[in-house]
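Chapter review. Work through the record for DUF2129 domain-containing protein before attempting the end-of-chapter questions.
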Amino acid sequence: MRERRLGVAVWVKNTRAAKNLRKFGTIHYISKRLNYVSMYVDANAFDETIRIMEKLHFVTKIERSHRHEIPVEYNNARPDKAKEYDYKQEKNQVMALAETLMAEESSPATVGST
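Structure tokens for DUF2129 domain-containing protein:
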């Protein structure tokens, strides 16, 4: 089963030293221009891991990700019109229209002969 992870942005003085952060979690991205590391840390030991990382000499600042706090299910979302459309109902309507047209084609031939 997958472990629950939380995202962290770690601002560092030098990106070479950022490789030492591998033992604290999974590194997702290292920005050489802005000198930060985007990584995931185990949620069970999150606070303890942050305290240890803050004590490292090459770490300047640590920012926690709030992405896990954002709701992804919306109650008042407008329904999608394409999903509402019932294609089976349309097929039944087309078939009924075709049957009426076929019936009309066969009945005028008998009416025209009188």
